[in-house]
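Query structure, 436 C-alpha cells:
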C-alpha cells in the first residue's frame, strides 16, 4: 500500500506540473491517472496430475490481486506500473512430497507438505511515448516475477504505426525473459540413498515398507542446468474495413532454450516393475524434454458493430511448434448493451490440439526413450469454454473512493472443460478508477 500511495503522490505532482507548464493545447494521450484493481478466484480439478506421473488429483485453487496504475507524465508519455500477487493451494503439487506422515500417501489425496501452497508475485513497469500527431507509438517494458522455486526477469519493447487517417495500424513487439529454477525433485529421488546428501525433507526411504518391487533403485540423473531463456517476436496488422467492421491479424514467434521440463513431475516406465510406499507409486524418473522449442501462432480477429445494442467479436488462431503440437482456437463474444451503463458479455471458446511427440500416458514411456512426459497439457485433447460477464460504465465517474472516481466495473465467469477429466472455473472482477 505504501508503494501505491507513493505512486499516487508522484502522479498528482506530475499532473500539476504539466498543467502549469502547458502553453499550447494538445489533446493528451491519457487525460488523468487511472487505477485498475483486478482480482480473480480460480479452481480446477482432474485425475491426470503430472506430479504423480499422469494419475492423481489435479485439484488447485488460486486467488489473485493486481493493481495497474497508469500515469500521464505529460501530453505524450504514459508510465504504467503493474503489480500483482497470486496465492494458491494445490493438492497436485503437494504430492511432490507425499510422505509427510499426515495420512496414507495416495496420488488422489492431498499431502500437507510444504509444496501444497505457494505465492507468486510480479511487478511490471512500462513506458510509452506517442508522437504529436499520434501516429507513432513507442513503448518499453521491464518485468520481474518470483515464486518459491522460480524467478524471471524480462525486458521488451514495441512500435506501432497508424496511417490512412488512423484506419490502418501496424505494430511490432519483442520481449526477452531470463528465467531460473530451483531444482526441486520428487521426495524419493532426493533421498540420500539416491545420491542426494542434502535431504531437507528428512525423508529416509529405509524407514518405509516398499511393496511391489522392493528393490527400488531408479537410475536417476539430476538436471545439470536450471536456466531458461525465452525470446518472443510479434507482428500485428489492424484495418477498419467498414464503419461497422474492423479486422486484425497477428503473428507471434517464440524461441525457448534451456530447462523446459519441470523437475518435480514424475514419469513411470512400462518396462520397470512398480514400487510403492503405502498407496503412492515411486518415481522411475522425472519428466525429460528437449532443451529448445520453437512456437508459431497466427491469428485473426473480426469485430462487427451490428447496432447500438449488439456487437459480434470473433477470433481464430492456428498454432504449431517443433514438439509436434498443433492447435486451433476459435471464439465468439457478443456484447449486448442493455442500458447506457450496463453491458452483458456472453462468450464461447473452442480449443483443440494434437499431442506432443514426447507425451506418454501413465506407464507408457520406456526407460530407453530419450524424452518423455506425462503432463496432459501436452496431450491430445479438445476443450470448450463458456463465459458470461457484465460491465458497468460511468464515464463521469460520479462514485468516489478517496480521491478516485469509479469509472467502470467488470465481472466475468468462465467454465472450462476438456474431454479428459480436467475442468476449471474462474471468476474475475475489475474496477477502473480515475484520479480527480
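Result returned for the query:
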Amino acid at each position: 500500500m505504501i508503494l501505491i500511495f507513493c505512486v499516487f503522490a508522484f502522479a498528482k505532482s506530475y499532473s500539476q506540473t504539466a498543467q502549469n507548464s502547458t502553453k499550447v493545447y494538445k489533446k493528451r494521450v491519457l487525460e488523468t491517472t487511472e487505477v485498475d484493481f483486478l482480482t480473480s478466484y480460480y479452481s480446477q480439478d482432474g485425475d491426470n496430475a503430472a506430479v504423480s506421473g499422469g494419475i492423481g488429483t489435479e485439484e488447485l485453487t488460486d486467488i489473485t490481486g493486481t493493481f495497474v496504475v497508469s500515469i500521464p507524465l505529460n501530453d505524450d508519455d504514459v508510465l504504467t506500473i503493474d503489480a500483482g500477487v497470486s496465492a494458491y493451494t494445490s493438492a497436485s503439487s503437494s504430492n511432490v512430497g507425499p510422505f509427510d506422515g499426515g495420512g496414507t500417501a495416495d496420488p488422489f489425496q492431498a499431502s500437507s507438505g510444504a509444496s501444497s501452497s505457494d505465492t507468486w508475485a510480479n511487478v511490471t513497469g512500462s513506458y510509452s511515448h506517442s508522437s504529436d500527431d499520434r501516429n507513432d507509438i513507442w513503448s518499453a517494458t521491464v518485468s520481474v516475477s518470483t515464486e518459491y522455486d522460480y524467478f524471471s526477469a524480462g525486458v521488451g519493447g514495441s512500435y506501432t504505426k497508424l496511417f490512412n487517417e488512423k484506419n490502418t495500424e501496424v505494430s511490432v513487439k519483442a520481449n526477452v525473459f531470463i528465467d531460473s529454477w530451483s531444482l526441486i525433485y520428487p521426495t524419493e529421488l532426493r533421498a540420500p540413498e539416491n545420491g542426494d546428501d542434502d535431504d531437507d525433507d528428512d525423508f529416509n526411504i529405509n524407514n518405509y515398507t516398499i511393496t511391489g518391487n522392493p528393490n527400488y533403485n531408479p537410475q536417476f540423473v539430476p538436471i545439470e542446468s536450471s536456466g531458461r531463456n525465452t525470446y518472443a517476436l510479434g507482428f500485428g496488422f489492424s484495418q477498419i474495413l467498414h464503419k461497422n467492421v474492423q479486422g486484425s491479424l497477428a503473428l507471434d514467434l517464440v524461441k525457448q532454450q534451456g530447462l523446459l521440463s519441470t523437475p518435480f513431475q514424475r514419469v513411470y516406465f512400462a518396462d520397470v516393475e512398480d514400487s510403492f510406499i503405502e498407496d503412492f507409486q515411486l518415481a522411475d524418473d522425472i519428466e525429460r524434454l528437449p532443451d529448445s522449442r520453437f512456437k508459431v501462432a497466427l491469428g485473426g480477429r473480426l469485430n462487427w458493430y451490428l447496432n447500438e445494442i449488439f456487437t459480434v467479436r470473433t477470433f481464430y488462431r492456428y498454432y504449431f511448434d517443433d514438439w509436434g503440437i498443433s492447435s486451433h482456437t476459435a471464439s465468439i463474444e457478443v456484447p449486448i448493451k442493455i442500458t447506457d451503463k450496463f453491458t452483458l458479455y456472453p462468450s464461447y471458446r473452442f480449443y483443440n490440439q494434437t499431442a506432443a511427440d514426447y507425451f506418454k500416458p501413465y506407464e507408457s514411456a520406456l526407460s530407453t526413450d530419450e524424452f518423455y512426459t506425462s503432463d496432459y497439457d501436452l496431450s491430445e485433447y479438445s476443450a470448450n469454454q463458456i463465459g458470461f460477464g457484465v460491465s458497468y460504465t460511468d464515464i463521469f465517474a460520479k462514485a468516489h473512493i478517496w480521491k478516485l472516481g469509479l469509472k467502470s466495473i467488470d465481472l466475468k465467469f468462465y467454465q472450462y472443460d476438456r474431454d479428459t477429466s480436467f475442468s476449471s472455473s474462474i471468476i474475475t472482477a475489475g474496477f477502473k478508477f480515475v484520479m480527480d
